[in-house]
Amino acid sequence: MLSDLEKMIQSEHTANSEVDHIVGVCQYAEAQCSGRSGSLALRGVRNAAKVRGASRKEDLARALTELRDHIAASVPRKINLAPRQRPILIFTDAAADDDTATLGGVLFDDQAAIVEYFCCRVSPKTIRMWRQEGATSESVDGKTQIICQAELLAVPLATMTWASRLLQRDVIIFVDNDPAKDALIHGISASNHSSKLVRFTRLACARLGIGAWYERVPSPSNIADDPS
Predict the structure, then answer these.
(1) 222 vs 40, 84, 176, CA distance in Å?
(2) At a CB cut-off of 8 Å and minimum separation 6, what does 92 contact?
(3) Where is average pLDDT lowest: 27-36, 52-61, 89-98, 142-151?
(4) CA of residue 56 relative to chain centroid, distance
(5) Residue 209: count of CB within 10 angstroms of its CB
(6) Helical H runs in the chain?
(7) Which of 112, 180, 218, 228 has the smallest number of Cβ neighbours within 10 A?
(8) Are the C-beta atoms of residues 136 and 180 closer than 8 Å to each other?
């Protein structure tokens, strides 16, 4: 399948029938193997296939490249018959106002008796980019909301920060934002920037062999509130 995708990416013209075939094969693989983890990549291919005009080749090549990267990262899952390790718990949180956004995360590894945390600020450039998209689609009472993107960014940041600890482990990730949690579970979002963050999270989990479970934690009970 990867070789077929490479040929389609390099092709000057890709027929819709070829795209439909690839999408059909990937849909079957997703349904039988990895659930919704590739739904975002598949949606990108479908949308690009509908494009008409000069930009079609570029849009389709980009979407097929993302699908190729997802498939390449999705290594075979391992089922360990030995006694299972207790899952790692990660709590993430974000705070945002007009000009700033801050992130935080806390990790509990009961198996290794380790508790760690991180905190950071989102760059002003990233905040401006989020607000530009939200200005037309997510404006509430004249104020553009970016909290969902900030909450989502905290999750792949946590997987990168603790990549060596999370390798081939089951992880329960707690977020206190329902739209962010739903996007992570379904692998898709109406927001382009949120979709990119979900895709990045999915790729990170696939490459690390993480068995991720996303759960809602009420804000007053979220220990990541302090570092964020």
Answers:
(1) 28, 26, 7
(2) 103, 104, 105, 151, 154, 155, 158, 173, 174, 175, 224
(3) 27-36
(4) 25
(5) 15
(6) 2-10, 16-29, 39-49, 56-73, 124-137, 147-161, 163-166, 178-186, 192-208
(7) 218
(8) no
Q: What is the pTM of this model?
A: 0.74
How many other CB atoms sit within 10 Å of the CB of residue 223? 17
Closest by CA position to 201, among listed 162, 141, 155: 155
Of residues 87, 44, 96, the one with CA closest to residue 65 = 44
Tokens coding 91: 């709590």
Phi, psi (degrees; rounded to nearest 5) at 215: -140, 150
pLDDT in tens, 2-15: 565 555 555 656 66
Closest listed residue to residue 198, CA positions, set 156, 140, 135, 143: 156
Sole residue written with tokens 């995360």: 105
Read off the pLDDT of residues 51-82 as tens digits, 9 standing for 90 and up: 666 666 677 777 777 777 777 776 666 666 77
Residue of 82, 92, 47 lying closest to 190 (CA atoms): 47
pLDDT above 80 (res 26)? no
Residues in the chain: 228
Helix (H, G, I), strand (E, B) or coil at 35: coil
Does an H or E element contain 170, and which? strand 170-175
Q: What is the pLDDT of residue 116?
A: 97
First to last CA, the chain: 42
CB 158 within 8 Å of CB 228: no
